[in-house]
Amino acid sequence: MAGKERTVNESDFMRTRPVLPLVISMSLPMVVSMLVNSLYNIVDSYFVAAINEEAMTALSLVFPVQNFINSVAVGFGVGINALISFYSGAGEGKAADKAATIGVVLSFIHSLILTAVSLLMLPSFLAMFTSSEAVIEYGIRYSVVAFTFTPLNVVGITFEKIFQAVGRMKVSMIALMSGCIANIILDPAFIFGLGPFPELGIEGAALATGLGQTLALAVYLAVAFFRPLSVRIALSNLKMEKHIIMRLYAVGIPATLNMALPSFLISMLNAILSVYSEIYILILGIYYKLQTFLYLPASGFVQGMRPIIGYNYGAGEHKRVMRIFFTVIIMCAIIMLFGTILSVVMPGRFIALFSDNPETIAIGSRALRIISIGFVVSSLSVAASGALEGLGKGFPSLVISLLRYVVIIIPVAFFLCRMAGLGPDGVWHSFWISELLTAIISIPICRKAFSFS
């Protein structure tokens, strides 16, 4: 009973506080940290682009693999987050402790497998999309260093989700910001050899990112040591109970697939664009760097929503769950409207951050304007996927993501490019078409999933 009382007392504000102030207070730290964290990729790309376009193209090709690794870590972390939140809302503190402990151990095992597989497969993966030996060499050099930090990165993401599950969003914000600031400082120092640092080139970008991720993990561990979490991660909780493991994977696997699908999509779109010119692969890579920056504030609200929804669902507060969901949809739509305006008014300035080639800037500006048509309507799908994961309903969330990233967009892109004669523009148009159709189909999926009878 001690565990039960501990969890309920600390987290019950998620059930009693008014919805809008609660959502804002839980989400704003995540919005700030997501905005800052998006600079990981932006900063890497900015400084790597200063080396040459081959290095930037290599970074674009490696990005799907990095994104997949993060997807596994974040996806399984969402499963841990959902289970801790549910057990806390239901007043089952000991079960929450077990979910946290088992989750950390399984995440570390995942990280070792991901490191080995990524390093082994990368040369063949790069050769699928480019024949340039320079691009392949840059990609391998970057990846060998970056993937060495995978275990530390994965465990850090796991602690991020655990801290979020118990409502300690500010700690996540501080940890992510610390890692990002370290990355920003170390990137130019390691890449160009500033001051006492050696000139490491593209390996320097990877090292700076890895050290930033390590610092973020160190912050989580330090805070957990000096200000213990309401869930206890201990060897005494490590008994591998089948029902907890099954529930972790029941949410974690669909959430991982949700996160990994963009990587699959990028690879498929790279294959479609590769028949035209490598400049289009570069532009797609640049867009995804920018898209990360544009979508992450919305993701911050989704991350703030998950533990609230999970806690209230566990507590049986179903009407409150619906109010939280609709509040987050509105907040996401406001953020995406702002992103649309920026993409339409000043796309050239964003593309110019990564290339000074006038052709790249011109084509990239057109691409960004077309893609941004679907930003606002995507708010429904983004919020719905996160809410369903928070409820522990991984499968309907996965269905929505499959529609966005595979079922609709890839066939539409292929048709518009090859059969409708739009060429590379067909890929850009496929984004907003996919978002619109997915939003329409998501409505009945959500109605069914949110019927709590």
What does this entry show, briefly?
The chain has helices at residues 2-11, 13-16, 19-37, 39-49, 53-89, 93-127, 133-148, 150-165, 169-192, 202-226, 242-273, 278-314, 318-345, 347-351, 358-371, 378-390, 394-407, 409-419, 425-449. It is an all-alpha fold and 453 residues long.
Major pleated sheet: none
Radius of gyration, in Å, reads: 21 Å
Q: Decide which structural class fits the backbone.
A: mainly alpha
Estimate the mean pLDDT confidence: 86
Instruction: Bin the strand percentage.
Output: under 5%
Shape: globular
Report the uncertain regions.
Answer: 1-9
C-alpha end-to-end distance: 29 Å
Helix content: over 70%
Query: What is the element string, with H for helices and E for strands?
Result: HHHHHHHHHHHHHHHHHHH
| Individual helix count | 19
Strand element count: 0
Descriptive overview:
With 453 residues, the chain is an all-alpha fold. Mean pLDDT is 86; it is low at 1-9. It contains 19 helices and no strands. It is globular, with a radius of gyration of 21 Å.
Question: How do the helices and strands line up, and which of them pair or pack?
Answer:
Elements: H1 2-11, H2 13-16, H3 19-37, H4 39-49, H5 53-89, H6 93-127, H7 133-148, H8 150-165, H9 169-192, H10 202-226, H11 242-273, H12 278-314, H13 318-345, H14 347-351, H15 358-371, H16 378-390, H17 394-407, H18 409-419, H19 425-449
